[in-house]
Specification:
alpha/beta; binds 2-phosphoglycolic acid
């Protein structure tokens, strides 16, 4: 269960969130839990999460670990050194607004793995693509371009997130059936690239307007292994409600 805070919260607000959130998930041993705040909040989150079951992640990383003259970028190795466990890669907002491509997703994923971070690699179709019946084709292009070129050993260490762009931040959650169909397609693509055992083992999260009141139906689907949560991860009670579905 991963929370993606996007561009929200200050370090002080991060501290407040953890003070409220940690007691609510103290006994939630059924799930791995991650909070992915903005870079600037990572130290506060790491400090607040110390000794708890909650891991901290970033929302993006550079595609090499070697330091260099790349203004505004952060290496996966730096994130690891700061205490991160996870990093979200290829979120649709990065693809839409910041020029992320399947090729850069693959490069960032490899660099994150090199630094021993767990990449949460996002894929998902836009509304127009779904409406024109191209969902499976888009998933296949994104999976084959951004993930399939990993080695089997690398693939075993990533988490995949299916996030239909039309369901992100819109309140329009995919029905459990629509989400399950896409997850099944992704698991099929994983099987074609890495074999059945690897496809069965990979965790595929659903993301897009997940809330405490719709998470149970999603989690009941056989191919949905968890959730990547935006808006509802900003409030401790809400995200705890999702985690403790
Ligand atoms: P949302 O965002 O839960 O606010 O729809 C999900 C995401 O973009 O990861």
């Amino acid at each position: 269960m991963a929370g993606n805070w996007k561009m929200f919260k200050t370090p002080a607000e991060t501290k407040d969130f953890f003070a409220k959130f940690l007691p609510l998930v103290e006994k939630s041993g059924h799930a791995d839990i991650a909070i992915c705040p903005p870079f600037i909040d990572v130290p506060a989150a790491v400090e607040a999460a110390q000794g708890s079951r909650v891991g901290v992640g970033a929302q993006n990383c550079y595609w090499q670990n070697k330091e260099g003259a790349f203004t505004g970028e952060v290496t996966p190795a730096m994130l690891k050194a700061a205490g991160c466990t996870y990093v979200i890669i290829g979120h649709s907002e990065r693809r839409q607004y910041f020029g992320e491509t399947d090729e850069t997703v693959l490069k960032r994923t490899k660099a994150a793995l090199e630094a021993r971070l767990i990449p949460i690699v996002c894929v998902g179709e836009m509304l127009a693509e779904r409406e024109s019946g191209r969902t499976n084709e888009v998933l296949s292009t994104q999976f084959n371009g951004g993930i399939a070129a990993l080695s089997a050993e690398e693939f075993a260490k990533i988490v995949v997130a299916y996030e239909p762009v039309w369901a992100i931040g819109t309140g329009k959650v995919a029905t459990p059936e629509i989400a399950e169909d896409a997850h099944k397609v992704l698991r099929g693509l994983a099987e074609a690239a890495f074999g059945k055992a690897a496809a069965d083992a990979v965790r595929i999260l659903y993301g897009g307007s997940v809330k405490p009141d719709n998470v149970t139906g999603l989690m009941a689907q056989p191919d949905i292994d968890g959730a990547l949560v935006g808006g509802a991860a900003l409030k401790a009670e809400d995200f705890a409600g999702v985690v403790n579905f």
